[in-house]
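Researcher: Let's do a round of design. I'm pasting the structure tokens now; please hold your answer until I've finished.
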């Protein structure tokens, strides 16, 4: 019986810890500003037959050549910025 009380107390402490209360980091609604050489890393659709998530890092101009609006898709697909 005493073991149950200790487990219950430990469970309550773990549930109230700051780690569980931390909010996930939110992605900004648009891509951060940068220079023409800044590379924006975003998730891209994986090729057929694989479940591995693919991340590509290209400049705004390179994304535009692929038909991607970095500012529009950043919140959903953005991962990071290089340079």
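Researcher: That's everything. Go ahead.
Model: Designed sequence:
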């Amino acid at each position: 019986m005493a073991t149950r009380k200790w487990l219950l107390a430990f469970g309550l402490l773990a549930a109230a810890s700051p780690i569980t209360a931390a909010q996930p980091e939110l992605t900004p609604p648009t891509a951060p500003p940068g220079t023409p050489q800044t590379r924006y890393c975003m998730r891209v659709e994986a090729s057929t037959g694989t479940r591995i998530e693919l991340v590509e890092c290209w400049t705004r101009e390179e994304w535009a050549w692929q038909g991607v609006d970095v500012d529009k898709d950043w919140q959903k697909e953005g991962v990071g910025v290089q340079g």
